[in-house]
Write a structure and sequence with these properties.
Length: 224
């Protein structure tokens, strides 16, 4: 396992990313299903939908409003009834296309048994909190910090600082687990030690981010 050469940290707080860290969500399958529902080209729908992603993640647009903004590009009148129906369909697809990684609940249980506070920290739209609630994950965390609710996205320092404040934990007493190197770097920029989680096939290539790396959440506490 790669080592950063930094001293070991005994953490009292753990900031944890959501997508591709504790949840596996098939975004492509969801997009294709929505495009079939609307009878539009999947690639064109994806391209139009991604135009509003940054606004959704910052909370400037709800998912429903982003749908209303995207539909006219396909000659579809964004009447409220259709937007509501599309929003319900998308919520159903999010649930169908998302699963909790097998190591997530055991990892949270282990942290809690050690008295380590947990904050979920995610770049996401307003549909993520209902999903987390439906999956039963919110009660397992001490704080839930979503970019769409706080107005800042990783790797901006404000989102990490908000999570630390919600936990009441100093940056030097916390770790961040994320699959994205840029977001790990954002955590370290505010003094939080970062651990990168890599799931899936690396094709035999070692990770090049320079952060301590784990392949399972259950391996992370050994680096705390």
């Amino acid at each position: 396992m790669p080592s950063s050469g930094r001293p070991e940290l005994v953490a009292s707080g753990c900031l944890v990313d959501v997508y591709d860290t504790i949840l596996k969500s098939s975004f492509v399958a969801r997009v294709k299903a929505l495009s079939r529902f609307l009878d539009v080209d999947a690639d064109a729908w994806l391209g139009e939908w991604l135009k509003t992603r940054a606004q959704r993640d910052r909370g400037a647009l709800t998912m429903a409003k982003s749908f209303a903004q995207s539909l006219p590009a396909f000659g579809i009148d964004p009447v409220p009834e259709l937007v509501d129906e599309l929003s319900r369909k998308d919520a159903e697809l999010m649930r169908e296309c998302t699963r909790v990684f097998d190591d997530t609940v055991p990892f949270f249980t282990r942290l809690r048994s050690q008295g380590i506070l947990i904050a979920l920290v995610s770049n996401c739209a307003d549909t993520t909190r209902p999903l987390l609630a439906d999956l039963g994950l919110i009660p397992l965390a001490d704080a839930v910090v979503l970019s769409c609710e706080v107005g800042f996205t990783k790797p901006s320092p404000e989102i990490y600082v908000t999570a630390l404040a919600d936990l009441g934990v100093a940056a030097t007493d916390a770790v961040m687990i994320d699959d994205q190197p840029a977001f790990c770097a954002g955590a370290e920029a505010v003094g939080v030690r970062a651990i990168q989680i890599l799931r899936g096939d690396l094709d035999g290539q070692p990770p090049a981010s320079g952060f301590p790396v784990v392949r399972s959440l259950l391996d992370a506490p050994g680096l705390f």
